[in-house]
Each structure stands twice: as C-alpha cells, then as structure tokens.
From TrEMBL:
Transmembrane segments: none annotated. GO terms for molecular function: DNA binding. This is HxlR family transcriptional regulator. The lineage of its organism: Bacteria, Pseudomonadati, Bacteroidota, Chitinophagia, Chitinophagales. It comes from Chitinophaga polysaccharea. Keywords: DNA-binding, Transcription, Transcription regulation. InterPro entries: HTH_HxlR (IPR002577), WH-like_DNA-bd_sf (IPR036388), WH_DNA-bd_sf (IPR036390). Residues 19-118 form the HTH hxlR-type domain. It comes from the Bacteria. The keyword Aminoacyl-tRNA synthetase does not apply.
C-alpha cells in the first residue's frame, strides 16, 4: 500500500493528470496482464486454461493479476452453471475487448522494432 502523500504517489497523481496515457499504461502494466488479456480474448478463459497457456506464471500471481484486471473492469468473473465444483470463467468487458486491438498493435510494433517473432502475438 502506497502512502497517500509519498513522492511516488504525488508523481503518479501528476502524471495521471498530465496525460491519460499514463493511467492507461498503469492499468495494463505488470509482467502478465497484457498476455492474460490477449489469452482470454483467444478463449483461454478459465484459470486452469490460463495456467496451461502461461506455464511460467505462479498461481498466486495469476490470481492477483486477474483480480487487478477485474478491479479495472477489463474482465469479469462469471460462474459456469451446472459445474461441480462451481466453475469460473473470465470474460472481457467492452473495455477489455477494446484493448485487444491495441495490444495486437503493440505486439506488431514490437515485432517490427525488436526484430523477433513473438509466437503468442500471432
């Protein structure tokens, strides 16, 4: 938890006020969030499917990143009726769906300027 009047908090508040790009980047920042959004958009919409798609992420980090994406209304959790135990799937909101082409554009930019083929972005 960041102190409300810390230098970091004040700098963040300043940057968010200067340009909405800074707050947008803050929503998707983190090592795994953009890949999680992209994976959910491709149908990997349950915890175990995401874990299989992203084997290097720990369950704790995956859970935390999903919760943060839910807090920012990028995705929502939905119970799957008729499953025992109760199954949960993650669904991108309109805000999340609008983010997917932006992530794809960033991926293409990365391919162009990094000179590497990134399999997950195809």
């Amino acid at each position: 938890m960041r102190k409300e009047h810390s230098t970091n908090a004040m700098n963040e508040q300043f940057l968010f006020g200067v340009c909405e790009l800074n707050s947008a980047i803050a929503v998707i920042s983190g090592r795994w969030k953009s890949q999680i959004v992209y994976s959910v958009s491709r149908g990997y919409n349950r915890f175990h499917l995401l874990k299989r798609e992203l084997p290097n992420i720990s369950e704790q980090v995956l859970g935390r990143q999903l919760k943060e994406l839910e807090t920012h209304a990028i995705l929502v959790k939905k119970e799957i009726a008729g499953t025992v135990p109760i199954g949960i799937e993650y669904i991108l909101t309109n805000k999340g769906l609008d983010l997917v082409p932006i992530l794809e554009s960033l991926c293409n930019w990365g391919k162009t300027y990094e000179g590497k083929e990134i399999a997950a972005c195809r």
